[in-house]
Specification:
Layout: E1 2-3, E2 11-12, E3 23-30, E4 39-46, E5 55-57, E6 62-64, E7 69-70, E8 73-75, E9 82-86, E10 96-97, E11 103-105, E12 110-118, E13 133-138, E14 145-147, E15 152-154, E16 159-160, E17 163-165, E18 172-176, E19 186-187, E20 193-195, E21 200-208, E22 223-228, E23 235-237, E24 249-250, E25 253-255, E26 276-277, E27 283-285
Parallel strand pairs: 6-13, 15-22
Antiparallel strand pairs: 1-2, 3-4, 5-8, 7-11, 9-12, 10-11, 12-13, 14-17, 16-20, 18-21, 19-20, 21-22, 23-25, 24-27, 26-27
Length: 294
């Protein structure tokens, strides 16, 4: 055995792993025998750093806009870190890559070109740089859209459908579904304003349109709006409040909101004998003076 310079006192024997960057003196000794004295020879060895094997990028070559993406690579021989850099020709706006983590960021669709190498360490030089790797950023999938407006309204009231969700900047697009029972049911495709000319149900759907970075969202399931009867405003009797015995009298009234007919009835406390009122025409009859309450 001999001794190695740079590591004083360390024996160099068969199988010893030598470190790169150091110079070792190896002495080979032949022991004396019956005919010869012992002898030795010294040899100086300088251990150079080795070349690393190729590094290959092995992460996916495409991604939909939105999710996080971290580039990965394999290869090289040492313990040096993978070092990332943008290549040339990226078309995705805001394309960037973190040199130490490989996290790729972008603000638009297109391509991101990047490369990598493994840094040198004690025993290996830095690896060769990979060729430029192309990541294609396609339009992303939007999250679900949900209709958030009320499920009921009353006849005569304005109603505008609302929704939330989706991921892009595309507008909401509305459409009637199937099975509406309200007469004249319709919905404005861009504003979501619902119209109808009768009570019943209005069935509609919505989706968020595509934009530069996202495909069109999925269409929601059918949403049912129930249009209930409305309360009519007060009816007011506007006919005269007195009449001379023997004259004819037909009660009249205004108000209400629908097309239903006026329905008349006697109230309580009439004093005129024979007081009566026709329920449909409002004609009042009596056989004596006094009051008719209606």
């Amino acid at each position: 055995p001999g001794s190695a310079s740079g590591t004083p006192g360390t024996a160099v024997t068969a199988g010893t792993v030598l470190s790169a960057g150091l110079t070792y003196t190896i002495r080979a000794t032949i022991a004396a025998d019956s005919f010869y004295n012992s002898t030795y020879v010294d040899s100086t060895w300088t251990i150079s750093k080795a070349a690393q094997s190729a590094v290959s990028v092995n992460s996916a070559s495409s991604i939909g806009y939105g999710p996080a993406y971290t580039a990965t690579a394999a290869g090289g021989n040492g313990g040096g870190a993978i070092v990332w850099a943008l290549g040339s020709g990226s078309t995705a706006t805001g394309a960037a890559i973190n040199s130490s983590t490989g996290v790729v960021t972008y603000t638009g669709t297109g391509t991101v070109h990047f490369n990598a190498y493994r840094a040198g360490d004690t025993n290996y030089n830095a690896s060769a740089n990979t060729g430029d790797f192309q990541l294609t950023v396609t339009k992303g999938t939007q999250s679900a859209v949900t209709i958030t407006s009320s499920t009921t309204t009353i006849f005569g009231s304005a109603y505008t459908a609302t929704a939330s969700g989706g991921s892009g900047t595309g507008v909401l697009v509305w459409a009637l579904g199937s099975g509406s029972t309200a007469h004249g049911a319709a919905i404005n495709a861009s504003t979501g304003v619902v119209t109808f000319t009768g009570t019943g149900t209005v069935v509609f759907t919505v989706y968020r349109a595509a934009d530069a970075n996202y495909n069109q969202s999925a269409t929601t399931g059918q949403f049912t709006l129930t249009v209930n009867k409305a309360s009519q405003p007060v009816v007011t009797i506007n006919s005269g409040s007195n009449i001379t015995f023997g004259g004819s009298y037909t009660a009249t009234a205004t108000g209400g909101a629908g097309t239903g007919s006026l329905v008349w009835a006697l109230g309580s406390g009439s004093t005129a004998s024979g007081a009566a009122i026709n329920a449909s025409t409002g004609v009042i009859t009596y056989t004596g003076a006094g009051t008719v309450v209606l």
